[in-house]
Amino acid sequence: MSSSPPGKLRGWILPARPWPLRASARSARSRPILGSPEKRERIVREVIERYGRLDALVNNAAVGRVGRLTDLDAEGVCEVMTTNFVAVADLTRLALPHVRRTQGDIVMVASALAWFPAPPLSLYSATRASVHGLVAALRRQETRDVRVHEILPGFVATEWLAYASGWRPTDARPHAATAIGTAPSRVAAMVERC
């Protein structure tokens, strides 16, 4: 699940692995649909109804707000916490019994900011550290039938940081908002190796 590159991940992963993919959002411009428990339940239910099984869950959801914590409003704090941690934990909880049945994989795409927090991304860094803690706990809990993976990329060359900063790319300069960093294809390759 992601608010930025899943459409790109689809193109890179599916040709190599002929698995159906259910993505919750396809671009940085779309609002993540993971905010409510009902929507998260629907995502898992629809996968089971359509395919009869769930072999893997890739949690790649993230939103961010650049600024000091005191500069953020309550709505922004709730959005970041809900999307980046609450939804990830709840979606994992919902998917886990199905993934356990298929002896599948849970892949958590967090961030190097879990280890090296950045002051202008303090809340985002905290949510990534929370995901890291969840991974550590799940690895101890799910010792038999589920493989739990964690990917901790640095900045990824997408529009995410620009959107988190509150500005948008223009049609005249579509790549101006792309962060310098790891190519999304490298992150997709890491997911595929899991």
TrEMBL record:
GO terms under cellular component = cytosol
Q: Which residues form a coiled coil?
A: none
Tell me which UniProt keywords the record has, alphabetically: NADP, Oxidoreductase
Q: What Gene Ontology terms describe what this protein does at the molecular function level?
A: oxidoreductase activity
The answer to whether UniProt assigns keyword NADP to this entry is yes
In the record, the note on similarity to other proteins reads: Belongs to the short-chain dehydrogenases/reductases (SDR) family.
Domain of life from the UniProt record: Bacteria
Q: Does the keyword DNA repair apply?
A: no
The record lists the organism as Kribbella pittospori
Name any one Pfam family assigned in the record: adh_short
Q: What is the protein name given in its UniProt record?
A: SDR family oxidoreductase
